[in-house]
Design brief:
Layout (H helix, E strand, L loop, with lengths): L5 H13 L2 H8 L3 H15 L4 E4 L2 E4 L1 H28 L5 E6 L3 H15 L6 E6 L5 H6 L5 E5 L11 E16 L19 E3 L5 H12 L5 E4 L4 H9 L5 E4 L10 E4 L7 E9 L6 H15 L3
Parallel strand pairs: 3-4, 3-5, 7-8
Antiparallel strand pairs: 1-2, 5-11, 6-9, 6-10, 6-11
Helix pairs in contact: 1-2, 1-3, 1-4, 2-3, 5-9
Amino acid sequence: MTEWDVKKLRILSTLRDRGTVTATAEALLMTPSAVSQQLTNLAKQLGVPLLEAQGRRVRLTDAAHLVLRHAEAVFAQLERADAELTGYLRGEAGEVRVGAFSTAVPALVVPAVRLLRAEDRPGPDVRVREAEAAQAYELLTAGEVDVALSLAAHAPTARDPRFTLLPLLADPLDVALPAGHPLAAAPALRLADLASDRWIFGGSGPWSEITTAACEAAGFVPEQAHSAAGWTAILALVEAGMGIALVPRMAARERREGVVMRVLEADQPRRHVLAAVRHGAAEGPAVARVLTALSRVAASFG
């Protein structure tokens, strides 16, 4: 395999740009003889002539120009590596592990990663782990994630010295109705208007608690017709006319033709989404950049 010496390739590139060995030597703080010696050695390493005499000057051969076309790509990649390494040493790059519940991954985490990638400086390498919202603080405590997205219902007290909590958004809950539901087009729909309907929600866990609490706040106890936890299953049941369901707006992008999503009026319930980190971790530049990106995405829901 041909040996490519980056230092010597840079000398060859400078010679192309400066035109003479003397000017190259001045630019690189070398002697002309050292420049000539390095280029002679590079030609031996590559096995092709790089320079040819042209009067009292030298010019690059076709082989030298071919070599430099590839060398420029190498130089560009090294510049990117150097920039990323600089960011890493400043703490702005590196790896940040994010644990997030299922609807938060496409709604918050993925757009936040896109924001970071669009910036004109190296960003952290975000590694995503899908996990139930209730697991967030276990994962943080165990050191398995650096940032965790959870629901306020599962958050410890703000006085807990182990964690720093950052409120991200109050996610509105809309109601999913079958397209043929009598109230699918009703004006000013309220949750209380749906008290006699059959409901679809999980048998236990956070979504069961959120649904029952919202309905009870509206003055009724929901009749559970079916138990399901995944939004694909819930919306399929709604589409089939088997019941209705509360759906967080973050998850509402999974639309079905036979389902009508209605925004509730005065009594619209919400679920509160938080980002959590171990206490002190928010001061790290890499984690801080991820939190800032998540906050920017969350603000777009307002």
